[in-house]
Amino acid sequence: MFRNLTKTERAWVLYDVGNSAFTMLACSLIPIWFKELAIGTAPGQINGDQATAYYSIAVAIVTVIVALLGPICGAIADRKDMKKIFFTTAVALGVVGCIINGFATSWVAFLIIYVLAKIFYSASLTFYDSMLNDVTNEERMDEVSSYGFAWGYIGSCIPFLVALVAYILGGGLGEKLQLFSPEIGKIIGFTVTGIWWFLVTIPLIKNYKQIYYVERDKTGVGKVFAKIFATLKKIAVEDKKVLFFLIGFFLYIDGVGTIIDNCINIGTDLGLPTVGQVVFLLATQVVAWAGSLVFARLSKKFRTVTLIVVCIFGYFAVCLYALTLHTLIDFGILAFGVGCFQGSIQSLSRSYYSKIIPPENSGEYFGIYDIFSKGASFLGSAVIAWVKLAGGTINIAVATLSIFFLLGFIFLKLSDKQEIKNRPEENE
């Protein structure tokens, strides 16, 4: 598949392969390692409910900080020759934080370091996403963006398998398979992930060149804020296609993010075995890889919005299917459905957004995009919490998320209508 890509496109895709390793670790083993450090009766340790609450607070802190910093960093990085500097710095600090995280011996230090690493990781994605305009042209954006997610999913499995084996040999499945201490397993998991993340990023750092930019000036922070607010006002008043897309994107990506963030909770509430869940989640990465490649091919024949709509209704069906969840096999079918559309809905949304924004301000616009992207899932998680507290089952809670996809579809179509008005030569 890489043969169809230019050298710069291939380097850009490889960064998805690198950062996805950290994403995979964050969705699986990091919460487990945190709770192993936090839960206990020794001085300084806490109970399970407190551990879950503190971890959720940490994730919320990252979301807020990234949402606030995204537009500012993006606006500054739009200046000539600045994007690579900001990107490289964010990656370096994220990788260092990831590796150091493995050596944390208290849950407080672990959580603080993780929050910092996650912030720099998220910041690097803001710059990375905005690079899409520089590394390819509009006709190839859907394909290249899809390849990024596709190879990111499959590539992340390599360091994750090493981390998983280290976790098992560190006593994760009991003393019978234990060869070394849990601390060593944790260090190996974080270190391998950090080194992988760094190594596959090198080609992009070497080959990326910022093509679209605004000239450097001595604009202060106050003027940067003023520029961001002016852009937000412009989007709200003048650029309806971007406004409607961001609203629709927030709604349906909130549903996507909520399902991803709560996948283990879904299985746990159903009383399913943890090992079986992890196996299915790993298999989901392979399905997501294949699904992203399929949609990359389809993007050559169909309009981007059409393919996003297919993904939205795929997720809509997945949410309704959750009403039938009872066994591990049911969970596996749900995971398969999620995998079919998970990478595609994200990659196609990214490329569609790249097409409808001014390329010279892509950093600033993707900073705004990150507010809607990184800030997503809190609303869906609140809905799940509300349903559960009201006495509903996890099945009903997940099914309720279908509303987000339906509303997201409506606003996406409104955005598409505005886009068609601007490009009358395009037809449905």
Summarize the structure.
It is built from 19 helices and no strands. The protein is an all-alpha fold and 428 residues long.
Which tags fit this structure?
globular, 428 residues, 78% helix, mainly alpha, Growth Hormone, Chain: A
Secondary-structure blueprint of this entry?
Layout: H1 7-27, H2 29-38, H3 48-77, H4 83-101, H5 107-130, H6 132-135, H7 141-172, H8 182-199, H9 202-207, H10 221-237, H11 240-261, H12 263-269, H13 274-298, H14 304-321, H15 328-356, H16 362-374, H17 378-389, H18 394-400, H19 402-422
The fraction of residues assigned to DSSP E strands is under 5%
How many domains? The number is 1
Largest sheet: none
The tally of beta strands, per DSSP, is 0
From the spread of the alpha carbons, the general shape counts as globular
Terminal residue distance: 29 Å
N-to-C order of helices and strands: HHHHHHHHHHHHHHHHHHH
Query: Which structural class fits the helix and strand makeup?
Result: mainly alpha
Q: Specify the number of helices.
A: 19
Low-confidence stretches: none
Using the CA coordinates, give the radius of gyration: 21 Å
CATH third-tier fold name: Growth Hormone, Chain: A
In CATH, the homologous superfamily goes by the name: MFS general substrate transporter like domains
Helix content: over 70%
Kindly provide the name of the CATH class: Mainly Alpha
> Mean of the pLDDT scores?
85
- CATH architecture identity: Up-down Bundle
